[in-house]
Write a structure and sequence with these properties.
- The structure holds two protein chains of two kinds.
- Helices cover 61% and strands 1% of the residues of chain A.
- Chain A has helices at 20-31, 44-69, 78-103, 109-117, 134-155, 161-189, 193-213, 225-229, 237-253, 280-290, 294-315, and strands spanning 265-266, 273-274.
- By secondary structure, chain B is of the alpha+beta class.
- The longest helix of chain B is centred in the middle third of the chain and has 12 residues, at 52-63.
- Classes of the chains: A mainly alpha, B alpha+beta.
- At the A-B interface, α3, α4, α6 and α11 of A face β1, β2 and α2 of B.
Chain lengths: 327, 120
Amino acid sequence: MYGNLTITDEPRKPSMQEDSEKLAEFQAKIDAGEKIEPHDWMPAEYRRQLIRMIEQHANSEIIGALPEGTWITRAPSLKRKLALIAKVQDEIGHGHLLYNAAETLGKPREQMINDLLTGRAKYSNVFNYPAKTWADVTVIGFLIDAAAIVNQLANAKGSYAPYCRALERICYEESFHLKQGHEAFVYLATGTQKQREMLQDAVNRWYRPIIHFFGPPDKVSVHTEQLMRWKVKMDSNDTMRNQFFDTYVPKVLEVGITFPDKNLRKNPKTGNWEYSDPNWDEFFQVINGNGPCNKERLAVRKWAEEHGRWVRKALLNPAEKYRIPLS
Amino acid sequence: MKSLDPRINRIDVPEDIPPVQEHEYWQTYEVFHQEKRGKQHVHVGSLHAPNAEMALLFAKEQFARRKKCTNLWVVKTADVFATNLEDEDMFETIPEKIYREAGGYKVTEKIAKYKESRKV
């Protein structure tokens, strides 16, 4: 699962040193719907943005497994425990697929791990919030995964072939995540008074992070036209957020759960959803490391890295040389 | 660390750790997957592993935990020789290569004409 490419700095203009003929050829290829393979010529800025986007996506899969993973031992039934173990395993698998896709662009795996651990590389903001109760895990499994699927289905139509191939596999697996999340959600919503209250409480807490998930509104979001032309970014933040609301708000309301926002409604004229200001300052605060769980997430990730080190070293054959994966 | 998660509070989380070393994640392998007997093996992706046996183990977890699988191959990425994508045009079939294709050989018209000539 993953949010949107929101932590973009100002995209750099394709450099003047870039061969304008090649640049035009590259654009024509993309306009014709052709995919770009790792060894094709590509503008340096295309490569830079893609590495960052795929890397962030990979990091999000790995970090995203942490709030859920710690609930495996506390899952309320065997069925839920099995589903959660399978889901967490999938997320880690997705992380591996995505790191490989990013590697084809020339950034080694080890460097990506170091950048995550030192805070240089980002991951989806939503994983910096705690999963306080089982209902939080349910909301993550349903609504956060749903939001991620909206984003990933769009990105799967992008221009970089290895990323598309990874996403195809990921989207197929995520469909199970969404279904099990929905089922767990409906189960609590149609359960006892206490279960309903627990779920409502979790939805109230996750409402804002879910809006944040798709990134700031288009009008304040950093200029992304070039990225859209290159089919690195496929839809604007608002378009995806709107799509998410369209599909999933009714699915929450139909089981009698509400959102803590009296301004949330679809404008019948524009077809766009309106909502109260979700405090975008908080969004940027959390991205910059000041969310409730930023430190904890990285600390746990560091712990895992450190405890796996001796195993990796024991298996290392220094004579073998690393190669960039093929595709 | 004070966490909501009892498991986190029990582990001794480090402040800082030394960086991961270059090549610490070994080398890369390409994975080929056969969905059922009689089908071709198809390339499904790549992974990091220290040796071929471990690569097979990881490939099973990564690429064969959902859909049906009857067989897996792993090949060191370094051992794959590939054509250059820039030379893609060398695979284009020029019209003169029709002699290599089934459509280049037509007899119906001749047979019809022959049969016609025998009718007399």
